[in-house]
Write a structure and sequence with these properties.
alpha/beta; FAD/NAD(P)-binding domain; 2 domains; 13 helices; 21 strands; binds 3-acetylpyridine adenine dinucleotide
Amino acid sequence: MKDLRKSRFVIIGAGMSGILTAIKLAESGYDDFVVYEKADRLGGTWRENRYAGVACDVPSHFYSYSFALNPSWSRRFSPGAEIQSYFEKVAEDFGVTSRIRFGSEVTRCHFEAGRWEIELADGSRDQARFIVAATGVLHEPFVPDFEGLEDFEGDSFHTARWDDSLSLKGKRVGLVGTGSSSIQILPAIVEEVDTVTLFQRTPQWILPIDNTAYTQEEKQAFETEPALMQTLRDETAEMMIDGFANILIDADSPALKAVHDTCEANLNESVKDPELREKLRPDYRAACKRLIMSEGFYDGIQRPNAKLETGAIDGFEAGGIRTQDGRLHELDVIILATGFKVDAFVRPMEVTGWDGVALDGIWQEGPRAYMAISVPQIPNFFMLNGPNSPVGNFSLIEIAELQVAYILALLEQLGEVGGTEVASTPEAMSRFDRERREAAKKTIWNSGCRSWYLDSSGLPTAWPWTFDRFQEEMQAPRMADYEVR
Ligand code: N01
């Protein structure tokens, strides 16, 4: 029996899951930890994504920590800046902010003689027994290799590198891509710009949502009677789990057909011009790509100053974007809503575990992790929302809370068997991966579309089983699947 509570922890990343880890470690008596954050502010995805219209597509009372409900959410789906303030407040309230070292990018973690040797970009070093990598999922912007990208003479930036100082008022704006980011941006800017041209490679199904603001009375009631918020959260969770997360894993489920029908009706009823309607009609099934929820997109794209361009992009030029039919679309600003490098996870950080084995080598064929948390040969290194974690229109907070509870249970069991080092076994990893790949084939994500959910072999990478199964697995680690030293 060993008490690991005196062990030192390094948490990498001060976004949603890093803040959560700090709170839960302290609460469980593990008080020797630091949070390294590369930026000068906490908030992760909500710090990085400040584009016009940014909001969370998970209802706010569900996209909150279970232990820090927030009576002040302004809307069903609150805007990004409000979510950022929420994380700042929680971090302050729970004493996390003072434990964060800002401007500290971890570049290398090397396991030696029972400890992690940690190197930072500023040349400083640290040592810890355990690392929690709360480094986020989509944090490395992906910019396609468009011909002439550098030649464009106007302003051009990726959605996660939004230029806060730039006014779009009266500008001719090009918006490339039709993912969640783009679909939020278009209705948010259409009124102020001169024109917005949406460059669409693939159309999207759009699920209509009601994003009504909470009234003053409702917010007051949440404040004075927190049980109301809890009920709302529980109901939303049930609706998201049973009505959504659990149906995605069976492409033949009638519930998915109903989602598809709702999206189809939304398109048919909302878009008046038949030509535009057909251009916006996807040829794959709803929820094959991450399902987009929007109140205003169809309205936005039908404004007289909005144009939908479906011709393939040939390249960028000084004056704008040329499509392959030879037309030049003259633009002042180009917004690249082209997504993220989805297989980055903890990288570009360099990680080497037992016997100098490199994580990069283990992940040669793509990132994977046993139970989405641990990688063989990489001991005492736990990932949150890592590879194979559940994704798909679901609260990543709920997922991270379950994962942190699992890691704490694993530490408890490690102490009980007298060990100080733990990593999943290669056998457990292979079995998990084999079963995961088999189950992935039956999911809606595998029903015939291109999306960031797919790995290089074309198979979905996310947790392919029910959310209930995820909850069950996270209840208690199976120690037989771990190598302990
Ligand atoms: O990125 P995406 P995103 N030429 O990868 C297109 C989360 N998120 O930033 O579909 C032309 O979805 C590409 O085209 P295609 C959420 O998890 C959440 O929008 O591959 N186009 C696609 O349309 C989301 O899923 C919220 O044919 C090119 C687009 O770029 C994830 O972030 C809000 C191209 C990329 O779409 C990513 O969303 C925002 C090329 N060469 C984001 N290359 C919430 O509400 C790519 N594209 C919580």
